[in-house]
Amino acid sequence: MAIPLFTDDDVRHKLDMPTAIEVMQQAFGRQAAGTLAAPARLQADLEVGKLVFTTGAATDIPTCLGFRVYDVTQLHSPGRAELTAVFNTDDGGLKGMVVGPLLGALRTGAIGGVAIKWLSRPDARVLGILGSGYQARTQLEAAVSVREFSEIRVYSRSAERCAAFAEEASKMTTANVQLCPSAREVVEAADVLICATASSVPVFDSAWLRRGVHINTIGPKFHSASEVEASIAGKSQRLVTDSLAQAAAFGEDFILYGSDDFARLTSLSDIISGNKPAPRAAEEISLFYSLGLAGTEVLLANRLFELAAAADDSPLE
Q1: Is residue 114 part of a domain?
Q2: Residue 101 DSSP symbol
Q3: Do 143 and 44 share a domain, yes or no?
Q4: Is 217 within a domain?
């Protein structure tokens, strides 16, 4: 039997950010209801590479069980690939596969958008972005989907890439996009701050943060390598993540491990479901650790397959 095989082009043409945000919002609802199986990721060190597997299932959907796999040592290689596969639980058949990194980036961006929707101030007007790679792009796309920003400030170490990113950002939104010469000029003005870098050292000083800011950190979050200072947690009134299971699985490597702040870490699904209070004070700083909620790639791939089937447009291998 022919198996549908989708590529980045299919993802680009059939899935948009509002749809991805909707799927992620539903995923957090399932997590709160206990109908999302989302274990911590698995990693196989194979000497020539390290394969990372994220697995998951929506237990209330009979056709939504699967995994995503990629080589983490090639995470920033332009030629890297990812594979997401979805199975039917009724007969074990393969429903379809997605090859390429765009699905994962879209999903991570959408999770960031959900976090901004629920954790940032509704009157947030200035968006700051540190980083100019593919993750920064989907984070930006999600952010402007859930908040109406009047100004967007961007900075990255590569002036050329940052200029290209700022130009692309200008096409996504009517907000005034400013290319800043330093991280400080981004951070000091931001009501919402997105850190989407590969940096192993903090990319800004926590003293620059405004009161009332919400922060999404997408990049490294370990004691040995982190794009944000560990001390930011102590300055934040609310610490939130998409996956408590993944935070626990990181163990002593995780940046909050061994601190009193680890016990304060809350699941975003608990806030969305009302199990934890959602309202925030105007001066409150909130910090979202994007760790990767397992199963969400599978849910997004499943939606892709449904949209293609509805349009009678499923590519066959």
Answers
A1: no
A2: S
A3: no
A4: yes
Determine the structural domain holding residue 156 and report its residue range.
120-289
Q: Which two tokens stand for residue 96?
A: 């379809």
Q: Say if residue 151 is in the same domain as residue 283.
A: yes
CATH code of the domain in which 97 resides: 3.30.1780.10
- Residue 38 and residue 170 in one domain: no
Count of structural domains within the chain: 2
Q: Return the closest-CA partner of residue 147 out of 179, 194, 181, 188.
A: 194
Q: Which pLDDT score, from 0 to 100, does residue 279 have?
A: 60
Per-residue confidence band for 281, with pLDDT thresholds at 50, 70 and 90: confident
Distance, in Å, from the CA atom of 278 to the CA atom of 266, rounded to the nearest integer, reads 11
DSSP 181-238: SSHHHHHTT-SEEEE----SS-SS-GGGPPTT-EEEE-S-BBSSSBSS-TTHHHH-SE
**Tell me, what amino acid is at 202?**
P
pLDDT of residue 1: 65
Least Cα distance to 135 among 158, 177, 165, 160 occurs for: 165
C-alpha pair distances (Å), 216 with each of 110, 158, 222, 246, 271? 12, 21, 15, 17, 16
What pLDDT, in 10s, does the model give residues 201-244?
A: 999 999 999 999 999 999 999 999 999 999 999 999 999 999 99
pLDDT digits 0-9 by tens, 9-52: 999 999 999 999 999 999 999 999 999 999 999 999 999 999 99
User: Do 73 and 143 fall within a single domain?
Assistant: no
